[in-house]
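Re: [ENG-882] Designed sequences occasionally contain unexpected residues at chain ends

Forwarding the minimal case from QA. C-alpha cells:
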C-alpha cells in the first residue's frame, strides 16, 4: 500500500512531445506496421501518428481505449454508443462488434485488451463513480459476450501480466488495482483480489502497460505521472509527466519511442524514450 511517497522514487525522465492540441487523448496502441494509434475522446476521432505525420479518422461517439489485432484493425471502446467497435484502416469500414451483454446494453465501455487466445476483455464502468456498479466483460473469440466481474467502482485500465496468466484491473475511484488468474478457455477471472491499494492521485489509476522489465506502468489520472510497480507490487519509480491527467500508456515494440503517454489536461502525446520496449501485447 502506498503511503508517504519516497521522493527518491521520482524520476525526471527525458520527454519528447509528439503531438499537441489534442481533444482528450486516450488509448494509445501500436499497430503491426509500427504506426501509433490513439483516440480523441471528446472529438470522436481515432488518430494515426507515424513518422511525424498525424491523420485523424472521424468515427463519432466517444472513443476511449483501443487495441490492434494482427490484421492491423483497431478495436475501440465507445462509451457514448455503448459498444465495442472496429476500424479497418485499409477500407475505412467501421463495424460494431458488441453492444449487449446478458440481453442488456453495455455500460459505457472504457478500456480493452486481448488475451493469449484472442478473447477481448473490456471494462464497463457505467455510472459507477459513487456506487460499485461497474463490470468487466469478455467478448470471446467465438463472439459471445459475458460478464466476468461486477461490483466495482469505476473499473478502468487493464493489463495482462505473468505471461498472460494474470489479469490486472484498475478500480479508479478507490485508488487500487486488482489481480486474479485469467482462464482463456472458459473466459473466467478466478480468485480476484486487491493487489495494490492507496495509489496516490485522485481520481486514481487509469490505463497501464507491462514493461519488458516486468514492471507494470500505470497512468494515474489526477496524479501527474506514471507509476511503475514491480512484480511483487512494490512501487519502484514515479515518472513525472507535464499535466495532471495522464490517461493511458503503451510501449513502442521497437523501443524507439519507449513509453508513450496520452495526457488529457494539456491535450498532448508524450514519448519517454528511455523506458522501452515493453512486453509484447496479445492480438486476435
Amino acid at each position: 500500500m502506498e503511503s508517504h511517497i519516497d521522493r527518491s522514487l521520482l524520476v525526471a525522465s527525458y520527454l519528447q512531445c509528439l503531438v499537441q492540441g489534442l481533444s482528450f487523448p486516450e488509448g494509445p496502441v501500436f499497430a503491426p506496421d509500427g504506426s501509433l494509434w490513439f483516440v480523441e475522446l471528446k472529438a470522436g476521432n481515432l488518430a494515426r501518428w507515424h513518422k511525424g505525420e498525424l491523420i485523424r479518422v472521424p468515427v463519432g461517439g466517444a472513443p476511449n481505449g483501443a487495441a490492434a489485432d494482427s490484421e492491423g484493425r483497431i478495436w475501440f471502446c465507445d462509451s457514448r454508443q455503448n459498444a465495442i467497435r472496429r476500424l479497418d484502416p485499409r477500407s475505412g469500414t467501421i463495424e460494431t462488434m458488441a453492444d449487449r451483454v446478458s440481453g442488456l446494453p453495455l455500460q459505457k465501455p472504457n478500456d480493452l485488451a486481448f488475451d493469449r487466445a484472442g478473447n477481448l476483455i473490456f471494462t464497463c464502468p457505467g455510472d459507477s463513480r459513487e456506487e460499485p456498479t461497474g463490470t468487466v466483460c469478455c467478448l470471446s473469440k467465438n463472439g459471445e459476450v459475458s460478464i466476468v466481474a461486477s461490483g466495482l467502482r469505476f473499473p478502468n485500465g487493464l493489463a495482462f501480466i505473468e505471461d498472460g496468466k494474470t489479469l490486472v484491473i484498475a478500480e479508479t475511484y478507490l485508488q487500487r488495482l486488482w489481480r486474479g488468474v485469467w482462464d482463456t478457455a472458459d473466459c473466467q477471472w478466478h480468485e480476484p483480489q486487491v493487489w495494490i491499494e492507496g495509489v496516490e492521485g485522485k481520481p486514481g489509476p487509469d490505463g497501464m502497460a507491462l514493461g519488458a522489465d516486468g514492471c507494470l506502468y500505470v497512468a494515474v489520472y489526477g496524479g501527474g505521472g506514471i507509476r511503475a510497480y514491480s512484480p511483487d507490487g512494490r512501487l519502484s519509480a514515479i515518472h513525472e509527466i507535464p499535466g495532471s491527467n495522464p490517461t493511458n500508456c503503451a510501449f513502442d515494440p521497437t523501443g524507439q519511442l519507449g513509453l508513450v503517454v496520452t495526457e488529457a489536461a494539456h491535450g498532448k502525446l508524450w514519448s519517454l524514450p528511455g523506458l522501452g520496449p515493453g512486453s509484447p501485447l496479445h492480438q486476435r
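QA comment: On inspection the terminal residues look reasonable. Residues 22 and 267 are 4 Å apart (CA to CA). Proposing we downgrade this to a documentation issue.
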